[in-house]
Amino acid sequence: MSPHDASAPAPAPTATAATPEPFLSARDLTKEYVTRGGRGLRPPVRRFLAVDGVSLDVPTGQTLSIVGESGSGKSTTARIIAHLLDPTSGTFALKGEDMTHAKGAALREFRRQVQVVFQDPASSLNPRHTVEQIISAPLRYQGITTPGGHGQLVRDLLDRVGLNPDHAQRYPAQFSGGQCQRIGIARALAVSPGLIVCDEAVSALDVTVQARVIALLRDLQRERGLSYVFIAHDLAVVRQLSDRVAVMSSGKVVEEGTRDDVFERPQHPYTRSLLDAVPRIDPEWDRRRQAARAAAGLDTTAIETAGGSAA
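Request: output the structure for the sequence above.
Response:
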């Protein structure tokens, strides 16, 4: 089998004693795009499945990371479960209630419960609005009033994400990329969601700022019991933040499991190829992973890594 053969999708996840009940679940999601090109009266039609039969569970209070190369379908999947994109087929449910075709009050409540932090922190913020206007926008959309007004809540949120509350009247252009991402996180927190979808939320940040934002996300999860769907291609970041990991290739989930199972005992050739492509400087890490593979009866063919050891 080729390392990139994704013809055998992972089975749909099932709840176990060690895994909390899902806050959000998706079953058999597909997203098909149709393109028309060529010449003449009947141009050819091409169909492309960006998401192909994806089933996922997001455990309550935990982080599910979805990883894969560019074009794997991970961001499209994230947009579907955030209700930003309609699936071609399949369903997704919030705390057991089907929300695939939610309208009106049900959709409004879904948008309160599920918030998104986007990849590019600057472009996801309206440059014409002050920070206070940006963070309070979800409150206005939901019709939520707070004691002391929105201004006090905005100041409290800015303080919680590590920004100066006195800067609430500034504009996005007056902040760094990392600070803009913190503003985006504060905006997501404003309506007290249960789930935040982080679509490549730290990939545009430098390593130092990235580490601080990850630490903030972990702290907020402990404090508020948040669930995260974390979309990323950086496996080092995924390892730090995840409870469970789903690996996508060509629109399918080819492997899904706990963080340690996926990183230490990968079952699918595509997952192994992703891990083997990661530069490492810790030879001991490679030795431990090779021993774990051998114990599981998996292929232990030596592959030279950046650390100079066999993976």
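The radius of gyration is 21 Å.
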